[in-house]
From TrEMBL:
The active site is at residues 37, 114. Pfam families: DHquinase_II. The record marks 32 as: Transition state stabilizer. The gene is aroQ1. This is 3-dehydroquinate dehydratase. It catalyses: 3-dehydroquinate = 3-dehydroshikimate + H2O. Pathway: Metabolic intermediate biosynthesis; chorismate biosynthesis; chorismate from D-erythrose 4-phosphate and phosphoenolpyruvate: step 3/7. The keyword Secreted does not apply. Keywords: Lyase.
Amino acid sequence: MRTWTATDLRLTDREWTIGIIDGPNMSQLGKRDPTKYGSITWDELDAKNRSWGEKLGVKIISLVSNHDGEILDWIHQHSDDVDAWMVNPAGLQTYAEGIRQAFEMSGKPYAETHFANTVRHFAQSSPHIRLESGLTSQAQSLVMGLRHQSYLSSLVGITLHLDEQHLDPDN
């Protein structure tokens, strides 16, 4: 039986830089509802993301913040440093217009990534209102509901997307 490695998936050997942003309350992982979020802490999640990135040949830079202004400043500061973004807007998702605009200005693709299935969450908390993320319509992808594995899925997907775009910019 053949053992696959992350680099077997790659289409190029270029080292991309991915900026990962976690919004409000993500710093409280490990203290939040374990049935929804598991027991992983943000520091453990960040270490997993960096380890997965290293195995995939991708450099990770990351931010966790409860403040949308800090997130906007970080996006503007790192727009020239990253090739793509991953974002879990968390509590900012329903009014993330500033973040969406910052991503648009950066000209880089982004993957919206959530620990929990936000559609299920909103359906349970506000069944009479259909709430959607302000980022989804412009995102390259949306992954949710797989806890920390959502990040691995997004990381692999956005990396392969960058590889394809590098090989065929018209694709």
